[in-house]
Structure formats: C-alpha cells, structure tokens
Amino acid sequence: xxxxxxxxxxxxxxxxxxxxxxxxxxxxxxxxxxxxxxxxxxxxxxxxxxxxxxxxxxxxxxxxxxxxxxxxxxxxxxxxxxxxxxxxxxxxxxxxxxxxxxxxxxxxxxxxxxxxxxxxxxxxxxxxxxxxxxxxxxxxxxxxxxxxxxxxxxx
Length: 155
What we know:
- By secondary structure, this protein is α+β, with helices and mostly antiparallel strands.
- Helix content is about 55%, strand content about 20%.
- It has two domains: about 55 residues; about 90 residues, Alpha-Beta Plaits.
- Strands 1-2-4-3 form a four-stranded antiparallel β-sheet, with helices on one face.
- Helix 1 crosses helix 2 and helix 3 runs antiparallel to helix 4.
- It starts with a helix and ends with a helix.
C-alpha cells in the first residue's frame, strides 16, 4: 500500500502541471485530458498559420523582379521583369545605371499590371574602367534590393 501513495502523488502532480500548462480549470483527470487535447489542437492551428505566413513571406521575396544582362557589341541588353507593378523601381534602376556610368541608348518600359524593362546600355566614352555584364547585373540587383527595403514594394 505504501508504494501506491507516491505513485498517486506523482500522478496528481503530473495532472496539476498539465492543468497549469493548458490553463485548464478542470478538476477531474478526464476533463484535464480533454482540455489538454483541445489546447494541443489550438497549438497545431497556430503552427499551421505560422507556416502559411512564412510561405507567404518567402513568396513575396521570390516575387522580386528577375534580371538578365547580356553583353552586346557596344554595351549591354538589360531585362528586368516582375509579375506585379513596382512603383519607383524604374528610378532606382536608372540611378544604378548612372552610378555605373552606363548611358541608356534605347529602352522599352511597361509599368501597368507588371513591370518590364528592356534597355540597351552603353558605357560612357570617357569612362576609365570597362565594366562587364556581371557588374551591371549586380548593380541592378542591388538597386532592386534597395528599392525593396525602402518599403516601395507593393503588397
């Protein structure tokens, strides 16, 4: 009989911890277990919502514009495309061109339902250092990142 008392006390202590962890007001063991089960279901729901939020935020990150840069005989063909409108992005990209010393020789831009820029850029004649396609692409990508972190992204 003496071995049952410690087991009962341990069991009672365990149920009290469970009751406390789940904010249950139940008194009997069955009700505490039912409340704990409901609490676990609530937690599962919260985890699912958080996973959806994470997926949504990573979708927004992947929604940043795509950039390709090709080397031409006298410059570069720069393509930037996003499936959504990007207010202010064109200005950021043109500033990046200016910082590189890249003259826009020809351009086609669409900013209505999506964002599309196709530009032919040539290096300034007085420029000392030659730039390559990778440098141009990195500058455009940095302009996009700067634009994005400045809160100009459209949700």
